[in-house]
């Protein structure tokens, strides 16, 4: 499918933005331009952004925008291709014997883009600001790194390069949480604070463009590209048009339209993993779903491959548990996601649900009353995107095939959130933004923040209690495996897939093997062919 030229006001605005960007590029200082001899000078990307008004990464509001701030701001630790913590601004780190405190030693000679040196006090101030945002009762949005509050009790600068952090969770997952961006102590609440990363902000016009320029004083060498320009778009069609007509070198998008470029001869499609876990929530408190065999039947009746292929055009990563497939934390259990409608029917029959009146909907006598297996199915949508509604309709059709009626209600996000919290639903399509730390306890522990199903298991709670006091990697992996095994056995809800996004580009810019949020442009500072 090809797109026709759009001459609307939106496109006119885009040309104005491109002109501004080109003028900015032309205005580069000659000295800076001279440093790029023999290497590529710039790339122009496109992405959606309509609401971001500031570059402060602690208060990010748009997921794609974070792929840009990740090039400007750096963290104590990073996550490598092997999904394990690596040195970042901290050159080394170590735990006390019990793991109740950790000591981080900062690299020597690192400076922020404004020339001020990085110190341990900047780390402490950043942590304090993250915790302040998380505790702010005046806003529902707690910041992009609010989960740090669960890991950090206190942070102290013991000298200019040493930070001691006391933790609430003395376990193996703690270093994974130390991947938040570090800001100068005096700028933690600034709109566009200085960073230490390979690129610095040269010019930013909200909803128009962001120009990044290479940091000549970066501690890790000379960035491969001198300039990275990003043009912001208001809609997916406008974004894809910009790529189609060569207005940009690449685009970062979660739009399913990107799937059409997988086989293009002149385009490369780099899939990246988001942190968005799509689930089918099952209200364990509903009398229909209190029986684990009914929950197993629902899982067997859903053809997840069909959902992935048709509704999501394969821009997903299937998963049986809340952990990410293909990583050390995932416990592979073949056959669990097998589509088996006949098996689903047998499970429902065994649970006493039969179609006694040939209505097509199963029924059962409960406390002397005939009840139909008819479920309230709520679903909410992202703005301007009906894909989750489509998936819900497909699921309803699959469940109808085994005698389960679904009454779909399409709600706003706030309406659905209220219903989930109140337990006023039977089935719900819901997505969760999973944390970088490999610990899904917020979804599975009794009465925890993301446990909307009412699932309560003493065995599961004890597994997490042990997990959260385990410092040894192998023991941690084993406990995660036990948690995932019990999750599949109890089936409190159904994990469908992690959503994927795509970088469409005509120029390969990275050698990174693992591309994921928020570091979607990870490796661009090195360029292809560099390690």
Describe this structure in words.
This protein is an alpha+beta fold and 531 residues long. It has three domains: 169 residues, D-Maltodextrin-Binding Protein, domain 2 (3-Layer(aba) Sandwich); 120 residues, Dipeptide-binding Protein, Domain 1 (Dipeptide-binding Protein, domain 1); 223 residues, Dipeptide-binding Protein, Domain 3 (Dipeptide-binding Protein, domain 3, Roll), CATH 3.10.105.10. It has 13 helices and 19 strands. The strands form four sheets. Strands 1, 8, 9, 10, 11, 12, 13, 16, 17, 18 and 19 form an eleven-stranded mixed beta sheet that branches. A hairpin with a 5-residue loop joins strand 2 and strand 3. The longest helix is centred in the first third of the chain and has 18 residues. It is globular and about 80 Å long.
Describe the structure in brief.
The protein has 531 residues and is an alpha+beta fold. Helices cover 26% and strands 23% of the residues.
Name of the CATH homologous superfamily of the largest domain: Dipeptide-binding Protein, Domain 3
From the N-terminal CA to the C-terminal CA, the straight-line distance is 37 Å
Number of folding domains?
A: 3
Main β-sheet: number of strands, strand sense, barrel status?
A: 11 strands, mixed
| Unreliable runs | 1-16, 23-39
- The gyration radius over C-alpha positions equals 25 Å
**Which percent band covers the strand fraction?**
15-25%
CATH architecture of the largest domain, by name, is: Roll
CA-based shape: globular
**CATH fold field value of the largest domain:** Dipeptide-binding Protein, domain 3
Q: What's the tally of helices?
A: 13
Helix and strand content put the structural class at alpha+beta
Number of strands: 19
Mean pLDDT: 90
What is the highest CATH level, the class of the largest domain?
Answer: Alpha Beta
Helix content: 25-40%
């Amino acid at each position: 499918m090809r797109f026709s030229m759009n001459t609307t006001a939106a496109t006119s605005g885009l040309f104005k933005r491109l002109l501004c960007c080109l003028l900015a590029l032309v205005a580069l200082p000659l000295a800076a331009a001279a440093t790029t001899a023999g290497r590529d000078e710039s790339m122009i990307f496109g992405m959606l952004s309509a609401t971001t008004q500031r570059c402060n990464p602690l208060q990010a509001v748009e997921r794609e925008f974070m792929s840009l701030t990740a090039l400007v701001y750096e963290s104590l630790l990073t996550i490598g291709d092997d999904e394990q913590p690596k040195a970042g601004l901290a050159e080394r780190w170590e735990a006390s014997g019990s793991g109740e405190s950790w000591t981080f030693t900062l690299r020597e000679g690192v400076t922020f883009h404004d020339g001020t040196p990085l110190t341990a006090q900047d780390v402490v101030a950043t942590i304090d600001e993250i915790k302040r945002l998380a505790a702010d009762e005046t806003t529902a949005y707690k910041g992009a790194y609010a989960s740090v509050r669960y890991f950090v009790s206190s942070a102290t600068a013991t000298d200019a390069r040493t930070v001691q952090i006391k933790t609430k969770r003395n376990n193996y997952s703690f270093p994974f949480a130390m991947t938040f961006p570090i800001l100068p102590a005096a700028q933690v609440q600034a709109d566009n604070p200085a960073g230490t990363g390979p690129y610095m902000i040269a010019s930013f016009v909200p909803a128009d463009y962001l120009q990044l320029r290479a940091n000549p004083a970066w501690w890790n060498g000379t960035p491969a590209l001198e300039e990275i320009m990003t043009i912001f778009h208001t809609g997916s069609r406008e974004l894809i048009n910009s790529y189609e007509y060569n207005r940009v070198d690449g685009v970062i998008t979660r739009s399913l339209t990107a799937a059409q470029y997988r086989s293009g001869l002149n385009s490369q499609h780099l899939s990246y993993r988001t942190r968005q876990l799509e689930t089918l929530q099952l209200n364990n408190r509903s009398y229909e779903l209190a029986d684990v065999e009914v929950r197993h039947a629902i899982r067997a009746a859903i053809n997840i491959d069909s959902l992935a292929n048709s509704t999501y055009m394969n821009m997903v990563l299937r998963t049986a548990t809340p952990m990410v497939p293909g990583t050390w934390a995932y416990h592979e259990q073949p056959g669990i996601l097998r589509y088996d409608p006949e098996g689903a029917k047998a499970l429902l029959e065994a649970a006493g649900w039969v179609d006694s009146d040939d209505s097509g909907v199963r029924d059962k006598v409960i406390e002397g009353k005939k009840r139909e297996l008819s479920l309230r199915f709520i679903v909410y949508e992202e703005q301007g995107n009906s894909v989750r509604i489509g998936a819900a309709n497909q699921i309803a059709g699959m469940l109808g095939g085994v005698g389960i009626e679904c009454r779909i209600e399409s709600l706003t996000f706030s309406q659905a959130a209220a219903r989930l919290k109140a337990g006023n639903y039977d089935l719900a399509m819901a997505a969760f933004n999973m944390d970088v730390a490999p610990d899904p306890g917020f979804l599975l522990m009794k009465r925890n923040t993301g446990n909307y199903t009412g699932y309560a298991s003493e065995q599961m709670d004890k597994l997490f209690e042990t997990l959260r006091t385990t410092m040894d990697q192998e023991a941690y992996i084993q406990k995660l495996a036990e948690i995932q095994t019990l999750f599949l056995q109890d089936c409190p809800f159904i994990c469908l897939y992690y959503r994927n996004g795509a970088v469409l580009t005509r120029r390969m810019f990275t050698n990174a093997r693992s591309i994921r949020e928020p570091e979607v442009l990870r490796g661009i500072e090195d360029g292809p062919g560099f390690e």
